[in-house]
Sequence to fold (200 residues):
Amino acid sequence: MTKVLVLYYSSYGHIETMAEAVAEGARAGGAQVDILRVPETAPEEVVKAAHFKTGSPHAVIDGPQTLKEYDAIIVGAPTRFGRMPSQMAAFWDTAGGLWQSGALHGKVGGAFTSTATQHGGNEMTLFNIITNLLHFGLTIVGLDYGHADQMKIDQVLGGAPYGATTVAGGDGSRQPSEIDRAGARYQGRRIAETAAKLAA
Fold:
């Protein structure tokens, strides 16, 4: 059975919700799925002052060597000024040995993100994540227009051909909509199915 890792960082829970939807989709695609998160690197006083969500049902990943166990790695993180946050970047910065050995070559990858506004850097952040995955040798699967609801214009919604997204609102009050979660499930399924085909 194809093994898929959904690896994420979430400050306020939006990406955690999207990660669970991505995992649902990957399971529907026939994969065994684990959801893990990267360590928090912000100082405790910053976490408290910014009211970060500190509880999670998902364990922290036990170092970059864990990535070798999976056929597909789907990475989710919120935007930080058009790029992935330092917490996710710090994790990948420790994975140089995997890059050096080519341990992730041929695995399937994808990205998903959240932004405060519809034009808050979601596509830039997706590309920022995808760029890292390409350097590690992953084959990227985005959110194709088979998820046609991403083309609607009658409501606020996420979605881009490069990966699933959601819009959190400036105060974080907007949670991922059903369309946003459906896009995440669609992408998760497509990645799991692609990994299975490549492994066949």
